[in-house]
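Record type: monomer structure entry
Structure origin: computed from sequence
Chain ID: A
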Amino acid sequence: MLGQAVRRFTTSAVRSSHYGEGPGKNLPFSVENKWRLLAGMVLFFGSGFAFPFIVVRHQILKK
């Protein structure tokens, strides 16, 4: 009885998903334009990489 309820829930959850089919359709960003994707990734990962250096510079210059 529990197995049937779980099976019914999982199949209805899959059916009610609103994502399109195919690779990249369920991502929160677009992968259609490779240059826009590159710029976004450089900004995202670059900011994470630069943050410790900015913090250290701030601490060194602080009086």
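Annotation 1: The longest helix spans residues 34-61.
Annotation 2: The mean pLDDT is 85.
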